[in-house]
Amino acid sequence: MAVVGAGIAGLSVAAELRRAGRSVRVFEALDRVGGRMRTLRRAGFTIDEGAEQISAQGYRATWQLLRRVGVRPPEVPPIGRAVGLWRDGRAHPGVGSRLAPLTGAGLSARARVDVARFSLWMSRHSRELDPDRPERGPLGALTVTEFARRYHPELLTHLFQPLAGAFFGWDPARSCAAPAVSLLREVGPVSAWRTYRGGMDLLARRLAAGLDVVTGTPVERVAADGDHAQLDVGGRTLTARAVVLAVPAPVAAQLHANAPAAERTFLQACSFSPMLKVSCALERPLAPRGGRSLYVLLTPEAEEDTLAGMVLDHAKHPGRVPAGRGLVSLIASPRQLPALLTAPREEVVERLTRAGERFLPGLRAARTDAWVHAFPHGLPEATPAALRHRAAFHQRPPGPVEYAGDWVLLRPASEGAVRSAALAAARVLARLGGEVPGEQPLVPSAD
User: Which residues form a coiled coil (predicted)?
Assistant: First the structure.
């Protein structure tokens, strides 16, 4: 069997099939594993290129997988810092806190009342807000903007938009509220958030260590061929009993040459938002005004045009930087993309650090180095069209070409990737005959 893509989804599905006694090879186009959970290590700095954190709650399949590969709780420490919002010239901590309706977190008194209303609404509908099946919930295909009209305007401009923009790279007018609200409810308050000690690629590296992974080897084409599948790799055509495409939906649509119509409809509807950030090594740690307790600062579009936010990596975990140094990652605003993806590196660094100076005075003078991390396929947008076609996609019969990735569940998080991997492995084994010995597979989502 073959898996295309060595992100968390691809490595998880390969590990699941390996546990079932199957022979699996993973092909990765890049020279490192991890996908959007890659980590760069330079001069004593540990730099997360994509994903930033997981949660102690709402990540059941991920925690099960962590235990399975021997990751101990101390290797996934709590962050213990706050998320803040920039408004009126300073940072306001408390976004994502249970006390936000009281502390304000940058919102007016009237908007705080509606934060409490929104929290109460989530509690009342908790059983219906299923992040694995968002289309079945009470929000239907409402976009974030449409859903926000129920509340004070500040909830869109100073809560939903900055959260969606910084963490998902979403345009609230394009992406559905159901996946975002379901995730907010499930992952809980910021106090439950954790990171991987030594870098967000910890799980990927542990998984890859027990698998047959070939990096630097792009797959050019995949096609179903009767009960088997063919894949073109390095000028050769290989045959496998099953191929799992664990790549973003637009890439899967390009690779799968003869995808059935029911699959292609969902693949084409499942668009991705690009993401880009610049990580800056600093000669000393910096903090925004009013935000010394922060590890993330959100900068709403109403306040800032170039940045969606920033991550204070030295506050996220002290082991990420050499003693006495600082590290900050500047997240580009969705409205600046995809133009920044094609701009020269020097221009990207200059534009984002110039914007960041407003929030972190002294940033440009303290910067000693910078790295640009670009993801043309950042996170699935979860558009109304994708939400409409998801159920039919999941009802298709198993075939020689399957899919894994957070987009399969329209759940833009590593938990979505792990759950989709369990589902893909279950479908492969159901078609070929076989089951995982000894224990239950990783909670596949059943539709």
Answer: none
